[in-house]
Design a protein that fits this description.
The chain is an alpha+beta fold. The chain is about 45% helix and about 15% strand. It has nine helices and five strands. A five-stranded antiparallel sheet has the order 1-2-3-5-4. It is globular and about 60 Å long. The chain starts with 9 loop residues before the first helix and ends in a 5-residue tail after the last helix.
Length: about 230
């Protein structure tokens, strides 16, 4: 049994606020040690302790606290196709998919830490057209299971269904189908919100795992839709 302890402190959020005000390479290089000590290392430590709890949800979840190429996302922004040329993200996050390949179309779980915006989530975000079609076809054939997941007490208590939606029914699906509003989704994700105070508390890992456990029926459903081991 891993003893409870706080992984994150208010200093993490203070640093990210400062980074937002000073989002340039010169400032970051001057403060890189603070970033590693206050932000990066605590998140890597959290990920390092998270594995056993996540594997109770699914043995196939990939949880890796390697500083490079692990579950934690890079802080550096991809500015090639963006008008915003600031070099750094002003949040930190990690992704725990059902595959070591970290494929964005693979179902999994997510954690996001930013000033005033702390949340966990799970599902499939922005899938490509073939992946989205697989999910929609599975929904057509298993509507009762989907409705049961959303109405489950734990899901309703911890999770909120979210995602972008089409304004019109997707092509190839009957517009009068009882599941048409669900079929309009372009993402199939949920989220669970937390406060900064909760993120800095000793029981935050328990809270995060409880939200993943509550959202796991949805992630498992998507895994079955995509024929991915769950």
């Amino acid at each position: 049994m891993i003893p409870r302890r706080a992984f994150f402190t208010p200093a993490l959020f203070s640093f990210l606020k400062s980074l937002k005000r000073n989002n340039n390479r010169a400032w970051f290089l001057k403060n890189k040690e603070k970033y590693e000590r206050l932000v990066r290392n605590p998140l890597l430590d959290f990920i390092g302790q998270l594995g056993p709890g996540m594997r109770k949800i699914s043995p196939h979840l990939w949880v890796d606290n390697s500083p490079q190429g692990g579950s934690m996302f890079r802080l550096y922004r991809d500015t090639r196709f963006s008008k915003d040329k600031t070099p750094y993200k002003t949040h930190v996050a990690a992704w725990f998919p059902l595959s070591r390949q970290k494929d964005v179309h693979t179902p999994g779980f997510y954690i996001h830490l930013a000033p005033g915006e702390v949340f966990a989530g799970g599902g499939v975000w922005h899938p490509d057209a073939p992946t989205l079609a697989q999910i929609r076809d599975y929904l057509l054939n298993h509507p009762g299971e989907w409705k049961g997941i959303l109405s489950g007490p734990a899901f309703k208590r911890h999770c909120t269904l979210d995602g972008e939606k089409l304004k019109r029914p997707p092509k190839g699906y009957p517009p009068d189908h009882p599941m048409i509003e669900t079929l309009k989704y372009k993402d199939y994700i949920y989220y669970s919100s937390f406060t900064e105070k909760q993120a800095c508390a000793p029981d935050f890992m328990d809270r995060f795992l409880a939200s993943c456990e509550a959202g796991s029926p949805l992630v498992g459903y998507l895994a079955r839709a995509l024929k991915i081991a769950w």
